[in-house]
Amino acid sequence: MKILSKGGGKRLYYDGHVHTPFCPHGSNDTFEKYIERAISLGIKGISFTEHAPLPKNFADPTPAKDSAMLYSDLNHYFQKLQKVKKTYKKFITIKTGLEIDFIEGYEQETEQLLREVSPELDDAILSVHFLQIEGKHFCMDYDENVFEEMVRKSGSLALVYKNYFSAVKKSVKHSFKSFQPLRIGHITLAKKFQKLFPADFSIEEDIHNILIEISERGMSLDYNGAGAVKPFCGEPYPPSWIIKEAQKRKIPLVYGSDAHSAKGLGQGLEQLDQYAKLTSPLLLDRAK
Ligand SMILES: [Zn+2]
Ligand SMILES: [Zn+2]
């Protein structure tokens, strides 16, 4: 696959959102396999951002409880990354990252984890995947059946969106002190099944408010290609009109394939807004 911009020139880019063999719901592709494919695609850098271990007192609502990496694997994950960083130093920039779940009510546990991993971390994405409805947690991007249940339990699709955007906004506004992740993950994940559950309401105001908060804090956006290749979504997270609004507010955009296999690197890139200026991640200042 050639990554070409619409102008025909090669679009050099950084992939800031990549999963790894440590993901229990991903592929077993090795780091080396990801990295070598990235080099062959001309990618200039990668942040490996595995789903960080969930808080110990949080019950993963997915059937196989496989939403995130195991806490007991963390050291091994960091060691492996240190090793590949050295091996591939001359060929590609590799950053050690995590995709951190923002789960309302578990902020303290999350801060504790961030504090613990901070000496190892160069980069981090803060994402919302879990929403609470009537006291029960749901993984909103798990599949269309779970999503349908969420709509039913909430009373309407609009209320699922409200719930999601409210959580995203809280994730932006919450202070994890000096351990703050600097990038907000896939801010329109609620649209993952939009072809099955089309929205007949506007999300402009919610998006507007979220973008203001992101820009005030100098954070950046995960411009995530995975939505574009999801059959029921068909657009990146977020779509172009939001990207335009983000650019008006000078919010940095970091492309993320959200690949869960080496083959997924670069996915959705061609569906991104061709005028969007992609950038490398702002790195955490404790990065070494
Ligand atoms: Zn995943
Ligand atoms: Zn995610």
TrEMBL record:
Residues 15-223 form the PHP domain. Pfam families: PHP. InterPro entries: Histidinol_P_phosphatase_HisJ (IPR010140), PHP_dom (IPR004013), Pol/histidinol_Pase-like (IPR016195). Its EC number is 3.1.3.15. SUPFAM superfamilies: PHP domain-like. One of its GO terms (cellular component) is cytoplasm. It catalyses: L-histidinol phosphate + H2O = L-histidinol + phosphate. The keyword Phosphoprotein does not apply. Pathway: Amino-acid biosynthesis; L-histidine biosynthesis; L-histidine from 5-phospho-alpha-D-ribose 1-diphosphate: step 8/9. The keyword Amino-acid biosynthesis applies. GO terms for molecular function: histidinol-phosphatase activity. It comes from the Bacteria. One of its GO terms (biological process) is L-histidine biosynthetic process. Belongs to the PHP hydrolase family. HisK subfamily. This is Histidinol-phosphatase. The lineage of its organism: Bacteria, Bacillati, Bacillota, Bacilli, Bacillales.
